[in-house]
Amino acid sequence: MYEVPWGLPVIAYFFLAGLGAGAVSVSGSVLLRKGGFGSSRFAIARCGALIGPLPVMLGTFLIVFELGQPFRALNLFHLINLSPMSIGSWFLNIFIILSVLYAMTFMLPSAAPGDRLAPIRRGLAWVCVPLGIGVAIYTAVMLGAMPARPLWNSPILAALFVLSALSSGVASIILAGVFFRRKSSDPAIRNDYENSTYLLITSDAVLLGGELMVVFLFLLFGQLTIGDVRYAMDTILPGGQLALPFWGLVVVVGLLIPFFIEIFQMAPKLLHGRKFRSHVPLEIISPVAILIGGFALRYTLVIAGQISAPAAL
Amino acid sequence: MTKEDKHETTRRNFVQKIIAGAGVSTVAAATYGLSSKATTPDASERRAKQYAMLIDTRKCIGCHTCSVACKAEFDVPLGVTRSWVEYTEKGTYPNVSRNFLPRLCNHCRHPQCVDVCPTGATYKREQDGIVVVDSGQCIGCKYCIQACPYDARFLNPVTGVADKCDFCIHRVSKGLVPSCVNSCIGGARIFGDISDPTSEISRLVETNPVTVLRPGKGTEPQVYYIGADHSDEHENKRGWYDVRVTTHRKEKGRR
Ligand code: SF4
Ligand code: SF4
Ligand code: SF4
């Protein structure tokens, strides 16, 4: 058995940072998007902006204390070099500061689309979207940079992590919507709510579809190749040590189940032009499944990468 | 470090500035990759000191004296190792063999541990090619431990920073050989400057069939072996002969 230098705190950080960065990026892009869906867009943007910074900060706290020398963490900022961890730390640092500022522009109860802070909010959104994607991607680039870890040594990991981060971000916004929206009998508000849920669910289905394709390609290329990568892939292919969490939690629970639930929810409007009906139990099940899958994805890949090694000495 | 490497270094610094200025990391990384390939050094430029080790496994008796000497030299904490000796047992009675493979940091010419270190704590010394960890800078992020294809590194449980063989800098800078070389019972370990054609190590590398570990990883190890058995437990999958590797480390699996 091999030692696993990066354990649960790092895995939890990858998941939390992805989720938070995803939520902020989704919020920013929804805010900046032109046309359609009216004021419901602002509600989504607000939700994502308020959710985002917390998990990122919590995750950052976890990895700092996972360091062998936590009190030296600031040494990371004495210089910048080509190490993905160095570049990523700068991204993370700037992202935390700006995403907190971005969240603050939504905090006043009077915050509304055209208020005094609107230009600042839009400006911050323009910066936070790419930064959030950077934070979500760098974790995978960091893993992918090493020939010593054949399972990770692939650019496709970056695509996988960023799609999963965005999808976890959307899931957390849907979930927050279910719990924190004020119930109202006013048809205009209800309509708004249904609109925003529809917008979120359709975007999420696209993200999940993309993620399924990337997972498929990742496995396909692992299966087609020979040598180090093929040996490493054995840990997650059927029969491998991590096959069960990978296929069960990542593929079935995290991708297939929510994907089909979302397709089922949006099909009536998409295909037959019927009115979209929000359905609360489904809006709890599919985001929770996505979040479980997002964590399981980090868990299985981070562990599998470390318990496999290059084949030939 | 050779002139070629120095060029690379300046180029790298330049690229780092670009990143700091514009944050266009991907473009910069691509440029760096392209431009470093464009350099073709000629033989005269290659002369820069690179300490290296040659281990003649035919003379090794698997006694672990090197590992014990290394432990004593550096007070290496329990459970972690800068130097270790693996046993590779192969075959089915009566056709069997047991070979010894002493291991340590390879002081690679292209050390990936250096590439990934975010703080600059790990670097390759220009004056002698030794790869070192600055224990005053290292934050213990363990990235280098992941990146080394030889598992040569560990997190020192006492200091909380990355640690590994440093070719006994404190000895070799005073003209002595490393502790493991000094203590080797079989005289299996030869240490010296491989860039100096008159050195014993150069002569032996030139006149013997030598191998390095995992050459495919592109690290260009500077620990050479004569007669090393590269058999690995992966080969058991074929079902033709048995291979058993004993690492004599806390981690039973070899990588
Ligand atoms: S053997 Fe590992 S630790 Fe030593 S220089 Fe090479 S990559 Fe770095
Ligand atoms: S553990 Fe220390 S030497 Fe290794 S990469 Fe991190 S900061 Fe650098
Ligand atoms: S050169 Fe020194 S530090 Fe390295 S293995 Fe030998 S005794 Fe240990």
Write a structural description:
The complex is a heterodimer of chains A (313) and B (255). Chain A is an all-alpha fold. Chain A has one domain: Formate dehydrogenase/DMSO reductase fold (Up-down Bundle), CATH 1.20.1630.10. In chain A, 72% of the residues lie in helices and 0% in strands. Chain A has helices spanning 8-32, 40-51, 53-64, 84-104, 118-144, 156-180, 187-224, 228-233, 243-272, 280-307. Chain A is globular, with a radius of gyration of 20 Å. The two termini of chain A are 17 Å apart. Chain B has two domains: 1-35; 49-246, 2-Layer Sandwich (Alpha-Beta Plaits), CATH 3.30.70. Helix content of chain B is 27%, strand content 19%. Chain B has helices spanning 3-22, 25-37, 65-74, 112-116, 143-147, 169-172, 179-183, 200-207, and strands spanning 51-56, 84-92, 95-103, 122-124, 131-133, 154-155, 162-163, 189-193, 210-211, 223-226, 243-246. Chain B has a four-stranded mixed β-sheet. In chain B, a hairpin with a 6-residue loop joins strand 6 (154-155) and strand 7 (162-163). The longest helix of chain B is centred in the N-terminal third of the chain and has 20 residues, at 3-22. Chain B is globular, with a radius of gyration of 19 Å. Residues 1-12 and 17-41 of chain B have low confidence and may be disordered. The chains are: A mainly alpha (313), B alpha+beta (255). Chain A binds chain B through residues 1-3, 5-6, 67-69, 72-73, 75-76, 78-87, 89, 142, 145-149, 231, 306, 309-313, and chain B through 12, 15-16, 19-20, 25, 28-29, 32, 112, 115-121, 137-143, 145-149, 155-156, 159-162, 213-214, 216-218, 230-232, 234, 250-255. Bound molecules: iron/sulfur cluster (SF4) (3 copies). One iron/sulfur cluster binds next to helix 4 of chain B.
